[in-house]
Amino acid sequence: MTTAGPARARRRPALLLDHIVAAAVALLDAQGVEGLTMRGLAQRLDVTATALYWHVRTKDDVLDLAVDRIFGDVPVPEVSDDWRADVRLLVLGWREAMLRHPWAPGLIGRPTLGPNVLTRTEFLQSALARGGCRGRALAVATRMVANYVIGASLTEATWRRTADPRARAAARDLVTRNPDAYPTLDASSHLDDARWDDGLLFAAGLDGILRAATGAGTPE
Question: Which one is the CATH code of 17-57: 1.10.10.60, 3.40.1010.10, 1.10.730.10, 2.40.30.100?
Fold first, then answer.
């Protein structure tokens, strides 16, 4: 009669880059950029830091991969005969993705060249080119659209995460109590969330940018 040998140690599944990026996005969603550390990421994956460094060298590498993953959530529309509608669909999806991940807008300016970023930038520029933008005008229009969605998303995400509704209400009350000092702000219902929906204001602003896009500059 033979005796059983020692039980085999539980084997961890192979660490894949996709697992690392998914864990990083989850950690960023929970704790923000400041809460992401290589040690914390390794612990979340139940691996050693050494195992993690086989796949990514630095925290910056992880952030670049996480940003590209978020861009992968942005639907790429089917090309239609209406270039403005195509850009609108792309950018509205871009905004929604960033608001689902409030840390993302602040990282978009990083010099990333991930495939998801490039695919969507290609779609944006090709749509603007179909609208008549060339040369410098295309560069200007691209920057106008990108800066608009990044800035608007960053502002809205920051407000949702940190702002005290009582402070906003107090600011609105200050305007309404002093209409002589702030006549335009009072008349436009500035800071009145009940009147102006952020999504509607964003879409209207985007439409204005796209109407101006073909006049963004003389092609060079």
Answer: 1.10.10.60
Q: What number of CA atoms fall less than 13 Å from residue 220's CA on the CB side?
A: 7
CA atoms of 55 and 47, how far apart (whole Å): 12
Residue-wise burial string across 157-180, b where 16 or more C-beta atoms lie within 10 A, e elsewhere: beeeeeeeeeeeeeebeebeeeee
For the entire predicted model, the pTM comes to 0.82
Cα R_g (the chain), whole angstroms? 23
Per-state percent for the chain, helix, strand, coil, to nearest 5: 65, 0, 35
| CATH domain 76-213 topology | Tetracycline Repressor; domain 2 (1.10.357)
For residue range 71-118, list pLDDT tens digits in order: 999 999 999 999 999 999 999 999 999 999 999 998 887 766 789 999
**Sequence-ordered list of residues with C-beta below 8 angstroms from that of 182, at least 6 positions apart, any chain:** 175, 190
- Binned at pLDDT 50, 70 and 90, residue 162 comes out as low
- How many C-beta atoms lie closer than 10 Å to residue 104's C-beta? 27
Q: How confident is the model at residue 217 (pLDDT cuts 50, 70, 90)?
A: very low
Per-residue pLDDT of 8-57, as tens digits, reads 434 445 678 999 999 999 999 999 999 999 999 999 999 988 888 889 99
